[in-house]
Amino acid sequence: MTTTDTASFSLRSIAVPAFGPALLFSIGEGAILPVVALSARDLGASVAVAALVVTLIGLGSWFFNLPASLITLKFGERWAIVGAAAASTVALAAAALAPLVPGGLWLLAAAMLVVGMAASVFSLARQKYLTEAVPVILRARALSTLGGVNRIGIFIGPFIGAAAMQFAGITGAYWVGVVAMAAAAGLSVTIPDLVAKPAADDGVPVPQATLRSVAVSHAGVFLSVGMGVLLLSALRASRQVVIPLWAEHLGMDATQASLIYGLSGAIDMLVFYPAGKLMDRKGRQWVAIPSTLIMGTAMLLIPLSTGFVGLLLAALLIGFGNGISSGLNMTLGADFSPDNGRGQFLGIWRFMADAGATGGPVLLSGVTAVASLGAGVSATGALGFAAAAVFAVTIPRLKHRRNY
After folding, report:
1. CB-based contact 297:317 (threshold 8 Å)
2. Based on the number of CB atoms within 10 Å of its own CB, is 352 exposed (0-12), middle (13-18) or buried (19 or more)?
């Protein structure tokens, strides 16, 4: 993109096609997430099996990150996004119909696995699209906005689902998801195609990168900055489990726990754009280090809380720290991704992030089982300080070849 193009570019020019599908997709996810376990229980699953069905969404997304990069490469960003939203539409319709067919629990489980796989393709393709469509000087703002839009959708989705369930029962949430995913697919068709870049300055085609070649050539980045991203993802995932668990530990009822969780999420949604602007103007470490230190400190404060107000203040601090880190993982991935092999790089990057998101709650569970819940929460809080240390050392030293 030329200097003139950069100067004239506005995020508003691509706001609807770039961020609209993301908002709709996350509304669809948000609508179903609170009811998947309940649906599984209604279909005869035990508590453990119901939890596993919910976990299939995350597992499908995690393990499909690498195939997602190949799908995006083959079909292009726009059609990968359209196809992923369409696949989710079909999967959620199947989930809604699961109570009406024999073996409905298996159908529900398969549907959730497909939703996770589709989410992986959708997320990777839209990240790659914004990385290439937006000038570098606006990259963090664009990707922070993308992260913020996701948070907004996940936040309001359950309310829309709850309203639908008043009329259609538990399946109403899935039909909200069907409508939202179908709308996301339809709107994604309007995404402008990217202008293809020349193969090479001398006209000689550049050999296509592979997952293996990208993994080898960028091993230094994956094993340095990538480890910070893994730790940050583990910390983020753990916070979602810690708040309700500690609320229960203090004897609070479900309403109080939900209020604390909701207010934390509200703070989370309010600060994404200023953080992206700061990253664009000052550098990524200006957000990467403070956000992880804030979340780590807040997690250490949770075991010290003894009532509603104490836990609420710690949860609000976590929400603020997580909110300013909106889009950070995606921005760092975009910064270090090569022009040739960007899709493969982002697939590996997202695989590492999802590995952290899966491992964080496992660490919490393991330490809690061996010691106590307070020790488990403190252990996950330590991840924030470890991530901050990694980012402090690696981000300034592994500067991307483009200035930001």
Report:
1. yes
2. buried
Express each pLDDT in 31-88 by its tens digit: 998 889 889 989 998 878 887 888 899 899 999 999 999 999 999 999 999 999 999 9
Amino acid at 327: G
Question: Is residue 269 in a domain?
Answer: yes
Position 282 in a domain: yes
Q: Among positive and negative, which fits the CA dihedral 267, 268, 274, 279?
A: positive
* CA separation for the pair 187, 184 (Å, rounded): 5
Domain holding 240: CATH number?
Answer: 1.20.1250.20
Is 59 inside any structural domain?
yes
Q: Are 152 and 258 within one domain? A: no
Q: What's the number of domains the chain is made of?
A: 2
pLDDT in tens, 353-399: 999 998 888 888 889 888 888 999 999 999 999 999 999 999 875 45
Please enumerate in sequence order all residues whose Cβ is within 8 A of that of 150, keeping only pairs 6 or more positions apart, or say none: 22, 23, 26
CB 96 within 8 A of CB 174: yes
Q: Which residue in 149, 206, 179 sits closest to 339, CA to CA?
A: 206
* Residues contacting residue 133 through CB under 8 Å, at least 6 positions apart: 14, 18, 192, 194
Cα gap 237→7, rounded to integer Å: 38
Domain identity same for 168 and 31: yes
CB 114 within 8 A of CB 88: yes
> Residue 53 is part of which domain span?
10-188
